[in-house]
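Target chain:
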Amino acid sequence: ANSWFRGDRPSQLVRADIFDAIDKSLAKLGTDYIDLYQIHWPERDIPWGGNPTRVGAVSPRADSVGAPADETPIAETLGVFDELVKAGKIRHFGLSNESSWGVMRFLAEADKGIGPRVASIQNAYNLVNRTFEVNLAEVCEREQVSLLPYSPLAQGYLTGKYDHGARPQGSRSQLFNRGQRYETPGAAEAQLEYNELARSFGLEPALFANAYVSS
């Protein structure tokens, strides 16, 4: 099971769990409302890293209409965010690690009046991970959904510190060994070319990579 919200138990994108998480966040932040609240992961099977990956919770949901039994319907989740906006607890809501299908489903339900439109999406985007451009870019441009890119430095691989197979002591890759998505065939060569291109213009690779994402 995926722990959707910080805590000691599995949770889902349902009213009780979302309200509990929001109220805890408001208390910790010491504020009356949150400007932008984003769903970190979809609650369904999605292609991730080239394979259909289970990222949702696994509690039985026999009442889920139009979805597998253990998925919370998107309309139900959106309705909860409608309550949160009307209650003044949040101003806007967004998505993260979402697909074009997921974004369009949320927007379709919003157009029915079930809840607010998606304001933002936070997906990985950088010089060596440009999957956002395949179809999400068009969706977001036409539907006015803002991209808040994460991992603009590709987990440090676009800083140059891992060039030529280096693994500096104390670096993220050396400590956690979680950079496999940037260690696929051809990835090291592409990263090195970008980093060397930056240096050829007298720029730090990190500045070069960040400038691309913000352009």
